[in-house]
Amino acid sequence: MGTKQKVSSIKEKLNKLEKQLEKIQKDCPHKTQCVRFINHIQRARWVCDDCQHIVKIPTQEDIERWINK
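Now predict its structure.
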């Protein structure tokens, strides 16, 4: 298998996995959430503990409580 075919195969697998993840996250009730630092661009976000989906942006009060834990 050549490089082009390998890359195509990997991209196809990634696409399928991303679709599976989207479905899991869509069906998840997001019952337990916590504030987490996602990356230096998105900063802190409320994230579902089960499916790791970004649920919402924390308020300033949420961030202060999170920092002071």
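The chain has one domain: 3-67.
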